[in-house]
Amino acid sequence: MKHDQDDLQFGQLIKQESYPATDNRWFTRRVLNRLPARHHRSWFMTAVYVIVALVCALSWRSMIMSLDGTVTVRDLLYMAIMALVTMYAIVSAAATVIRTE
Fold first, then answer.
1. Eight-state DSSP code of residue 4
2. How many Cα atoms within 13 Å fall on the side-chain side of residue 34?
3. What is the pLDDT of residues 59-78, one digit of tens each?
4. From CA 77, how far away is CA 66, in angstroms rounded?
5. Which runs of consecutive H residues, i.e. helices, occur in 18-72?
6. What is the domain partition of the chain in residue ranges?
7. What pTM was estimated for this model as a whole?
């Protein structure tokens, strides 16, 4: 990693002006006890995400393959519904991953 002169000067300033940390062996335990419990994502939720992703991918593939050059209102409606379902699946999967980390 490349450091420029400002980074080095800033690091030296922090070392000179900071207070030394007190030695408290209970600090780590108290901090860790106050943290929320870690929730690990189960294999079941991972399987559900994979299945939903496969269903979305297969639905998009079948929709694209069924187009024969003309786009009808039914095709546009199907595309809109598939876009909403896909976006919902992506957002809910991402929210679950972010929440558990």
1. -
2. 6
3. 889 888 888 888 889 888 98
4. 14
5. 27-34, 43-66
6. 42-101
7. 0.50
